[in-house]
Amino acid sequence: MKDVKVCVLRIEGTNCEDEAAQAFASVGATPEKVHLKQLLGQCPSDLKRDLGSYDILMLPGGFSAGDYVRAGAIFAARMKSGLKKDIVRFVEDGKPVLGVCNGFQILVELGLLPALDGTMSEAPEAALYTNDSGRFECRPTLLRQERKGRGVFTSGIPRGSVVMYPSAHAEGKLMFPRSEEGKMLDRLLENDQVMFRYVDPEGDYAGYPWCPNGSLHNIAGICNPAGNVLGMMPHPERVLKRETHPDWTRAKWKEDGDGLSLFRSAVGSIR
User: Fold this and answer.
1) Residue 150 pLDDT
2) Which sequence positions are flagged as catalytic?
3) C-alpha span between 165 and 103 (Å, rounded)
4) For the chain, which end, N or C, has fewer CB atoms within 10 Å of the first or last residue's CB respectively?
5) Do 251 and 8 meet the contact criterion of CB atoms below 8 Å apart?
6) What's this model's pTM, rounded to 2 decimal places?
7) CATH code, 143
8) What is the pLDDT of residue 253?
9) Can you tell me whether residue 196 is helix, strand or coil?
């Protein structure tokens, strides 16, 4: 069986790399927590790493570079200035890229999402803006898997099924330029790029608090047209076991938490 190597990429301010690494390790992959300087060669030679040597790229949550300028903007700018060709090659080779919370914001700033007109846009095509509530929202959230096609990340999550992934963010409202909003949403839907949407306990699309941020079309996560780059605001790495479900003592949950199947799908796509 192939040893699936995962690059869990971080800089100062990243704070979910341990959970992300544990998620991949729990499904048999070999994660390594890598600082961006190691990929850029800004470190001793024995610490240098090559992005191409990994099978999966994970951008975990946190507050990279303090979220100055915009959430994820500084991390994305550093990546794009020094690794643009390597990142494009990684994506075009079909390797999975997952960005969670701050990682989703980084993927949008990089131009890897929504990537409507190529692998990486020169400028961001969307934004993850301040929640409608104006505050940090931290709670379990329910998501419906919406993608029709068999995806890198959703082979174990049937279309229409509802999962519980915790949300914890202040800037998770997916937005497009107002003049292009309808057109861009139509393209996302036509391309089968909307992977997760917020729902209420009955499985219906609903507003606050079930949608914690006011995101367009209740969108919680989108992928690129090829389906191998996924960005989402909620945290699947925080619900790997049934004990992490808020109702685990009152309901008969399976041993695996809802988040495990996403990581198992990603690793399985390589093997």
Assistant:
1) 75
2) 101, 235, 237
3) 15
4) N
5) no
6) 0.96
7) 3.40.50.880
8) 67
9) strand
Structure tokens given for 12: 């100062």
214 CA to centre of own chain: 18
With the CA atoms of 246, 249, 255 and 260 taken in that order, what torsion angle do they form, in degrees rounded to the nearest 10? Answer: 0
Pick from 191, 171, 170, 189: which is nearest to 181 by CA? Answer: 189
**For residue 35, what are the β-bridge partners?**
10
pLDDT mean by block of 10 residues, the chain; 271 residues: 94 97 97 98 97 98 93 96 97 98 98 96 96 96 92 93 96 95 96 97 96 98 97 97 82 82 96 82
Q: Is the peptide bond before 209 cis (omega within 30 degrees of 0)?
A: yes
Q: Which long-range contacts (CB under 8 A, 24 or more apart) does 36-43 make?
A: 36/9, 36/10, 36/11, 36/75, 36/78, 36/79, 39/7, 39/9, 39/82, 39/83, 39/86, 40/78, 40/82, 40/83
Strand partners, 99: 59, 231
| Per-residue tokens: 225 | 């047209």
Q: What is the number of structural domains in the chain?
A: 1
Query: What Å distances lie between residue 171 and 20, 129, 186, 268, CA to CA?
Result: 20, 5, 23, 31
- The encoded tokens of residue 186 equal 């139509």
Instruction: Please tell me the number of Cα atoms within 13 Å of 82 on its side-chain side.
Output: 14
The range of the structural domain enclosing residue 139 comes to 5-270
As a whole number of angstroms, the distance between CA 106 and CA 119 comes to 15
d(CA 144, CA 122): 31
How many Cα atoms within 13 Å fall on the side-chain side of residue 25?
A: 10
Residue pLDDT, tens place only, 87-130: 999 999 999 999 999 999 999 999 999 999 999 999 999 999 99
